[in-house]
Each structure stands twice: as structure tokens, then as C-alpha cells.
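Severity: low
Component: inverse-folding endpoint
Summary: output formatting inconsistent between runs
Steps to reproduce: submit the following C-alpha cells with default settings.
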């Protein structure tokens, strides 16, 4: 049991350390990698415990007569919205109603290292403002029994040899109630399994197991740093591939132009003709669920603004869309409106184009200008 418990402790420690070094991933969502000082908390609480063995349960005693008290301090860190680790240091008082060698009163000190799993965020998705969160935990720990005066039960023995002590296996449920961004109230119900020798029974090596139920409540406080997780805004790879294709096409055209002869035969002079600029429709692609114009798309806005400056009488119409495979029709219609207005505002605010020369329209997902779904997160310029 001891070898297995030590191995499990090492695994818990390794999990906690490695989880701080990798990017946070939860439910298929990638979150920004935060600093090692983020997501730490400390908790203080107290409550009760009840020792459970067949002899204790069969004893003629009321439930209230069996309740002891306990307190705990914990420090932990959520390594992702779903997984976390913590170290709990606790201690308390046990009331034995059965006839056990340690007597009716027993004090103890201990601690346990746990892995926490946020059941609420795992099943319901991560929401930083959620008021209630349920987190089961499992871990291993240690308990050292003391007498009623907080002294070791065998005063003539070594500190650990032949004393009432045990490695423990710990399971439980943590209910967290969010009070603010950095403060929460917790209610914890736990169960720990320990060796029968802890209460003095089977002191010669009986490895049967006893149990102890615990219930604690208290407050948790964030230890500075960031307490919430931020979803990463991933690049649209279909859009990237399309832009790379355009770049490669332009490079090929430049290479062909480079191969042209440096000189050509003299040509007769031709009287210059006055022509207006020919406008080629530009497009602004957007990321999923966004109406922010990325830096790589600003060139389309710039080219349109330059065309309008060179042709003072020209007007332009901006029509925005949303892809059909994401969101509801009502949501997509509102999103395409925001995209159209964002592009129009960029022309007026960043390049000084008079708003009277710009008209806008939005189609949501009612129209899809491109066969590729991801390309339909777009605003298109049309000369009028």
C-alpha cells in the first residue's frame, strides 16, 4: 500500500507540474497559455468528521455524539478550466463511541494531495462568471493520530514507529460558490480510507481499513495574478490557404515579368489618353464570430480608399455576409451588419472618405457569395 501510495503521490505532483508547462486545452477549446503565477488560490475552512467502522456504527450512540471537529488550509492551482491540483493540510478531533485502544478522544494531523476535476465546466462548457461549480477530487494523503492532549499516543516510542498513523486514500466533492472574481465560498464533502491500526485496533499489523467522512466549509481567495482563462482566437486556415494561393500566383506573375527583355523596339509616340481608374472589387475576410478587421485584411480597405481619393465622384457599396454553417440566421444577420459597419467606419475614420459616398448592406447567411463556406465570412466592396 505504501509503495503504491508513494507512486500515486509522485504521479499527482508530476501532473501538476507538467500541466503548468503546456498550453491549456479543455473540451476541444484552446486557451491562452498563462503565467505560472496565475490561477493560484488559498482556502481556509472548518467543519466536522465522523469515524466509520462496524464497531462505531453498532455502538449505542446518537449521530451527534459521534461528530468531531476539524479544520483545514489548502493551496491549489487550476491548470486548465477543467483540471487542477491542490495540497490540503488538515487536523481535528475524533470522537470514538466504540471501545478502541486509543480511548474515546483522539486528535490528528494530516494532509493530502489531490487532483480536482471541474465536472460543471467539463460538461457545461467553461463560463468564468458561473456562480456554482462542482468539482470531484481524488488523492492520497497521510494522518498522524495523537491523544486527547495532542501528544503522540506511545510516548516511549520513536516519532513514527509504532504510533497511530496511516497513509490515506481521499475522495470527495467540492461545491464552489463564486462571490467575486477572486473570492468564493466552498462546501466540501469527503471520505478517506485509512488503516485499521489508526484507532489502535490491530496494532500488530492488521491491514483492514477504516473510513472517515468529513464535511467542511470556508472561503477561497485568489493569490493575485489572473484567475480566469481566455480562449485563444485561432486562425482560419482555409482563409490562410486562400491568401497563400494568391501570393503564390502573384509571385509567378512577377517571375514571368522578370523574364521579359529589358529593351524593346522603338514605338511611335501616341497621344496620351485621359482615362478613369478601373475599380476591381476588394474583399475583407473575417475570422469566425468576429467583425474585427485583421491587419492582413487592411490592404483591401486601403486600396478602396486610394481608388476613391483618385476618383472624387466615385461611390462604393459594402455588402457583408456570414457563413451558413455557424450560428443562427438571426445571429448571422446581426453579425454581418457589424461587419459592414466596421468596414465603412474604417474608410471614414482611418482614410477620411466622406460617409455620403459609402452605402452598406448586410445579408447574414441568406446569400453565400462563395462555394467555400469559410470564405463567406466576408465584406465585399462594389463600385457604384
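Observed output (run 2 of 3):
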Amino acid at each position: 500500500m505504501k509503495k503504491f501510495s508513494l507512486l500515486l503521490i509522485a504521479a499527482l505532483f508530476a501532473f501538476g507540474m507538467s500541466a503548468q508547462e503546456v498550453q491549456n486545452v479543455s473540451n476541444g477549446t484552446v486557451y491562452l497559455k498563462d503565467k505560472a503565477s496565475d490561477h493560484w488560490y488559498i482556502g481556509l475552512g472548518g467543519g466536522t468528521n465522523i469515524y466509520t467502522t462496524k464497531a462505531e456504527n453498532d455502538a449505542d450512540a446518537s449521530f451527534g455524539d459521534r461528530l468531531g471537529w476539524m479544520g483545514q488550509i489548502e493551496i491549489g492551482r487550476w491548470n486548465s478550466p477543467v483540471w487542477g491540483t491542490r495540497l490540503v493540510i488538515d487536523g481535528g478531533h475524533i470522537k470514538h463511541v466504540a471501545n478502541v485502544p486509543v480511548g474515546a478522544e483522539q486528535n490528528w494531523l494530516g494532509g493530502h494531495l489531490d487532483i480536482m476535476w471541474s465536472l460543471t465546466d467539463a460538461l457545461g462548457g467553461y463560463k468564468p462568471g458561473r456562480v456554482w461549480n462542482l468539482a470531484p477530487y481524488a488523492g492520497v494523503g497521510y494522518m498522524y493520530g495523537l491523544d486527547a492532549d495532542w501528544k503522540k499516543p506511545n510516548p516511549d516510542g520513536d516519532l513514527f514507529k509504532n504510533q497511530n498513523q496511516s497513509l490515506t486514500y481521499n475522495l470527495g466533492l467540492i461545491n464552489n460558490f463564486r462571490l467575486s472574481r477572486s473570492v468564493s465560498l466552498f462546501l466540501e464533502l469527503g471520505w478517506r480510507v485509512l488503516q485499521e491500526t489508526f484507532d489502535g485496533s490491530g496494532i500488530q499489523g492488521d491491514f483492514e481499513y477504516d473510513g472517515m467522512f468529513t464535511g467542511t466549509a470556508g472561503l477561497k481567495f485568489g493569490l493575485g495574478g489572473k484567475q480566469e482563462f481566455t480562449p485563444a482566437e485561432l486562425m482560419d486556415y482555409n482563409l490562410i490557404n486562400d491568401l497563400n494561393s494568391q501570393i503564390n500566383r502573384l509571385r509567378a506573375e512577377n517571375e514571368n515579368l522578370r523574364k521579359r527583355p529589358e529593351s524593346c523596339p522603338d514605338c511611335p509616340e501616341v497621344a496620351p489618353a485621359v482615362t478613369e481608374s478601373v475599380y476591381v472589387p476588394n474583399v475583407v475576410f473575417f475570422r469566425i464570430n468576429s467583425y474585427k478587421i485583421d491587419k492582413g485584411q487592411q490592404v483591401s480597405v486601403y486600396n478602396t480608399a486610394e481608388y476613391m481619393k483618385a476618383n472624387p465622384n466615385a461611390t462604393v457599396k459594402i455588402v457583408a455576409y456570414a457563413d451558413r454553417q455557424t450560428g443562427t440566421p438571426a445571429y448571422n444577420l446581426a453579425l454581418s451588419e457589424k461587419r459592414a459597419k466596421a468596414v465603412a467606419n474604417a474608410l471614414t475614420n482611418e482614410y477620411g472618405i466622406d460617409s455620403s459616398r459609402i452605402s452598406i448592406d448586410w445579408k447574414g447567411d441568406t446569400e453565400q457569395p462563395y462555394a467555400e463556406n469559410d470564405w463567406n465570412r466576408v465584406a465585399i466592396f462594389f463600385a457604384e
